Fold these 3 entries.
Entry 1:
Amino acid sequence: MKVFDCPVIGPRPISEFDYGGEVRRPPMEADAPSWAAYVFNRQGAPGLLREWWYHRPTGRWYVMERDTLKDEVVRFIDLEEVRYDIPA
Amino acid sequence: MPWRLLKYGLKSSHNEPRFFPEAKPLKPHYDVVIIGGGGHGMACAYYLAKEHGITNVAVLEQGYIGGGNTGRNTTIVRSNYLTPEGVKFYDTSLKLFEDLSDDFDLNIFYSTRGHFTLAHTDSALRTMRWRAEVNKHHGIESEVVDRDFIAKEVPYMDLDCAGTHPVMGALYHAPGAVARHDAVAWGYARGAYNRGVEIHQKTRVTAIRTQGDKVTGVETDRGFVSCNKVVSMVAGSTPRITSMLGLETPIEIFPLQACVSEPVKPFMDTIVVSGSLHVYVSQSSRGEMVMGASMDPSVLHSTRSSFNFVEGLTDQMIDLFPFMSRMKVMRQWAGMSDITPDFAPIMGKTPIDGFYLDAGWGTWGFKATPVSGKTLAWTLANDRNHELIEPFRLSRFTDFELVGEKGAASVGH
């Protein structure tokens, strides 16, 4: 994969992006083992992976779903889909 | 020197016997099934048979022997790591390496070169001093050296790095070595085979059968085999195996690329690494420059190569060795590194009874081949973690006892 066809800023070379890793949602209340699982464990097996990508020139984060076997972006995710409320 | 080499030199005909005869059908039951026929899997099989008398063992390999990361690394062996756990572990490995040619009666081309890790910044130099102190405490030859020393040992290197990143000093590790990676896998495999271990190439494990929390056998594309113990030694394919058991781990797969130049006359008798420039280079016994860089930036389960890698690597390499601009890159390739958050492996027992892991080998697997085989064999035979691998257990993440091995290759400081 050399170019991201971004729906917001159009096609951009991959070299303009930084990798932010898997999108994960923290457990709001958790015991130590499940907190450790959230912090350290990852979806290691090949398949669709939701991950953060940062576009350096425009300073904006994107979430994309990528096939980690074929290295193809399957879809861009609306940030509303991954948003969660931090408990007050 | 291996005696075989001498006999070979004095003989007029060279009819080499096959290392491994044709595969037989799988048996219905084995005491131990080893998934993965790379260096680690073969070493484990070898020590199981040699030191523990366990020979009803099958090594199942989806491709061919040593065709994965064993054949894709840059063959560097060293023990100047940062943590006491890492230093003890890798030094045991280095000492085992030194005797392998005699053990196998097979020349593994083990060549002690001396290993320079260059420092281009104050902070890098500070990490080097820290590493040297930890190393010396454990009796390992490792010291911080200045520019004059480097200039004498590596005279063909531009210490000013074209003026962009002047070298301030280096961590020098005299026992740092290179070895022929294929021979290591083949030597272990032949030793295991001669002691009764079965090696099945082109045999893919498709599922692991359990009853309750206990392993009962493995499904393969050649049928089911029952077994009491399964050990996964598959590096970049680890998450595919652990997901068969629903076992979550911190392992993520990133491609690590490398390349070799066309062969030239021997001129470089040291290994040079720069963490800041993300390059490492040595000259192979065939004269090729063996070069590697940092990992690819994002997760990918593929061994594809990229132009970006060669472009980025050569850009830095030419700053250090300007004359290399006239050399051609002959071949490039990639391996899938199984990276852990603390740059240390994950070894030993798991929550599933009879399932053992030898994983998380990231960019540091080849040098650990002998010691990982030896300690895993002990762990399988005694059903408890060997003391050297206890710090690397999977449960360290839930115990919040990470290792923090920043001495690993391809890790910036």
Entry 2:
Amino acid sequence: MTGVILAVARQEVRTARTNRLAMLLIGIFIGMVIVSGFIGWATHHTISSVYREALREGATSAPDPLSAQQPLDLIRNTVIYVILIGALSAILLGVRSTEGDRKAGVVDLIFSRPVTSRQYATGKLLGIQLLTGFILMIAALVSWMVMLLISGRGLSLADTGDLMLFFVLAWLFLFPFSALGFILGAISRRETSALLVPILVWALLVFVIPQLGTAEHPVSLLNPVLARPVSQGPFFALSRRVLQPVSVTDRFRSAGAGLLRIDGADTQSHILDWLSLAGIAAGSCAAAMFIARREIMRRPFLE
Amino acid sequence: MSRAFWTIFRKEFGDVFRSRYFLVLCAALIVVMTLSLVISALDFHTRLSDYQRYVQALKQAGGTTQEAPPQLSPLQQLRGSFEYLEIIGAILAIVIGYGMIAKEKYRGTLRLLFSRPIGLLDVAAGKLAALALVWLSVLALLSLAILVTLYFVGGAVLSVSEIAKLGLSMGDAWVYLMFWSALALGLASFTRQPSTALLISFVIWLSVVLIIPQIGDTMDPDNQVPGGLFQTLQVDKAHQHAVLEHFSFYESTRNALEETSISKHFERASFAFLGVKEMYDRQPLAYIWSGTWKDTVWPLAGAWLGTAFALSQCNKRNLLGRKSK
């Protein structure tokens, strides 16, 4: 049984590597992780200079707003790039995984062998998660090196640990997106809906649900620091209570900001965020294994 | 215009409104835009109640406040809705533009179409004209939904000047959405596999709509300190400008980066007309136009380029020469 799963997983990793668009998105993601450090550094440098200038002109007597800033805060934008590019890449990997086999007609061939649909789905999902895990490991390494380049000295052991934990968190966050892509690639009759539906669900999770709980404007949600305090009206309090458990982006943003110790973020333990993300990741993979059954996968594409 | 053009135009226009994707996406867009408006109104009421409670508490303690109550014009409440138009509207535009070519490729109807005596640009022009009318209809419907929601949720009846500003913002939206549809139509004609065009369009969308504006936003020092840098430092407006003059290179670089995004231009122009940007709130149209005409001209140029690209790609040689796999 393990042999079959590993063979499917190995094949999945090999096939994904030839998916040029997925590789392009992954390339953009790694590129943006590098850029993130430099943007953080340039912004940090400018804020400090603005503060010094304001102090020199006698326009302020307030303390330096960055005096308590932590080193990992410099890569704060990575949180957003994981939500934007990472999630879309995961969707694409998931869609192409099942859709590719269905279009190539290899599903019939695979299921003519003694392979159950559960083994097949487990192998495929394992392959995708190994690949995303590997990409995030590279991203973590790149971030560490960017920090070294910017600050001239490496991160402390504690900061390195938090950086690694952040990318583990990102890995968990990407699970449901790749599983969603996997499911849609398996059940859709049309290529357009296989791609479009997960992207719309992603837009709903990234923009609409967080807005319902915070009243923040959609574009402002792309900034790691919220522009204003969260609205406290009864509607928003209720929305937060109902939607937060399923709002993966809110959970990831909150726990990620805590790990990177982003200015203004809640640095309390985010154990509930972790548990929630792990639960959603496990649930989505279980759903993918349950839905991607032999008879569904064998249905032909209409386009 | 030839008869073939009108036939294609009529067929495409009808097809779009019969498409399930279009209807679902269009409904989703209208729902999120009106929902955003409702959220904005609820948020405003929450802030107003907070303010009233604060004033009441101060009064009971024998004090008075210098702080003015929260002010919001009806058009300012449309900020979130227009941001959805910028993000989700662009996805809808891509899907419609791509769908116009993809359906022909998947059904294999292109050879039949080009076996008839039609002009070089009839197919492309017919499809683009249909797109233009589709967007005009969708935006008219959206405007109506906005006016009704503003009336029932915010209790606001817009003045003639406000309706004109909303109309101009919608005009900007029309240009912006035409850019995305034309680009997707051109790409779907250009690529062998239509789904590749859809993916390339989404990669461009991701970069132009989300990544570039996001970088610009996070490079803004004022956005990187909770509550705003200058507010935290308690620096007044006059000093803000004086201080920022020393960082003109950084600010110009940030601005130049933002200006490469057509979405940012659309956002700036529509936010100016809606009064979201404070300096344009309740100002005459001539004043707003003089400050923001570039933000309308750039998307116009983008839409023209997108249309030219679509016209150059959506022809017999390309569509029949590059067979879909």
Entry 3:
Amino acid sequence: METQELKNIASQVRRDIVRMVSAVSSGHPGGSLGCADFLTVLYFDKMKHDPSNFTMDAKNEDVFYLSNGHISPVWYSVLARSGYFPVPELSGFRIMSSRLQGHPSTDKGLPGIRMASGSLGQGLSCALGTAETKKLNGDDSIIYTLHGDGELQEGQVWEAAMYAAGNNIDNVIATIDYNGRQIDGDCDDVLSLGNLSQKWQAFGWEVLEMDGHNIDEIKSTLDKAKSMTGNGKPIVIIMKTEMGQGVDYMMGTHKWHGSAPNPEQLVSALYQLEETLGDY
Amino acid sequence: MIEKINIEVLGKKDTRSGFGEGLLEVGKLNNNVVALCADLTGSLKMNAFENAFPERFFQVGIAEANMMGMAAGMTIGGKIPYTGTFANFSTSRVYDQIRQSIAYSQKNVKICASHAGLTLGEDGATHQVLEDIGMMKMLPNMTVIVPCDFNQTKQATIAIADHEGPVYLRFGRPSVPIFVKPDANFQIGKADTIIEGTDVTIVACGHLVWKAIEAAQALQEKGISAEVINMHTIKPLDAKAVLDSVAKTGCAVTAEEHMMNGGLGDSIAQVLSRNTATPQEYVAVDDSFGESGKPEDLLKKYNIDTPNIIEAALKVIQRK
């Protein structure tokens, strides 16, 4: 897909995000805005998938797991905009009896979601399981994951990292949303992540880095990562992002991790984000 | 003249070996069955499966959280994962992983837990989980099964592959009498009435079923007719079996190798209190951790042995 087209989709996704969280005065806009470009490129240009015919089993399809489930607004928007469910359903976000739960779940049957997430640190393990099943089934599809950087403080991530390299899991492409911020402040102040690239390398992973707001770079890095699958090693992309990207007052701070804009702030946010595909 | 209760004993074996044999068997019957183990292959008797189906066996190392997440992920694409480790590491260590990735996500994972309860013995309280039935039965979507002997553990291991949804299967380490027939038809959620009686109902699970049989035999000699129900499925509970029995007997004793809080006894109490007020006595561990010792000595010390069931039966009959 053309870069400009992807930019247009990402702009609409960002509008969806701020409108969804503002409508219910809750949710996580900061990380959602930061991952809008990545998820747009992944779902609209790189993943092998069939949005109109969602199956839990994902036979011969790529699979995506959102391990940092709190950025559900960006995922819901991308899923709806790519055809998994009707776009107007985005208005149900965080409302009782809706399929769009605060954190992603399977129990309400929202197409596109195969695993609940929200309690952090679990998505990479789930991806490895699916990776092993795909190998057993002779299915050469890829499993993609997204993780928060603060999420890497969870020990289970490193259990999974060790397993993947030790067992030559080479059909997984993990991406880290490296925005350097978490609820209580900068990651460096809360619990330093140290040298992330070296950590993953030491665990036996192929490490790529990219700018998470440069559509062309996301495209080329994902292409490179895909070309590296099947070579006996797991792949991680450390994606540099800005929390709150696209809305000036949400950038440069951790304060919009889990806070929603009020009606006046929403107007200001929407003024900065072009409506390209029509609001829901 | 009182008729003697006769239960045929077919041998003596550990229930974990029943799991090992059942796993091999279900692996032959169903190509989708895969097994994961966290560095306890020998202890769980999973070697036979590993040797027969090396490509379907996944050694994850000492990383139980990752094992549970992987098992959940393996179901995407149709596999039926059986996880194997000690009961403590199958539950309390990984409760949130089970809660989110397996129970809430409705994944078809079979959590197989050995060395449950005090009869783990000498390793002591760090490994003797007595809270696992409670933890697991509280999770929505979870089925909880506690078979009583080698044959039933083998049968349950095979049966759960055909049950769509998460299952917790609890078994143990000590060698215990085998009395379930090798060709018995194990049905999830259907209690087995092993001995029929009219004076008191004894509902037991796991290793305590044999103790309940011993207690019923001793009570018979005192002229008391005890009904013994093997409640191998704690959830979903066979409430009808309990209510039908207490309609005859008017009182109940529950017996389990588990904490009194949250175990089989509480499940039975819930059924009774919501249907028909019935005196009940608990034979269970009373708000205490275990300790090192020989399995049989520990059952005595923690008051979950045959004499405790007899005593509870005599007491509950007085309360009618």
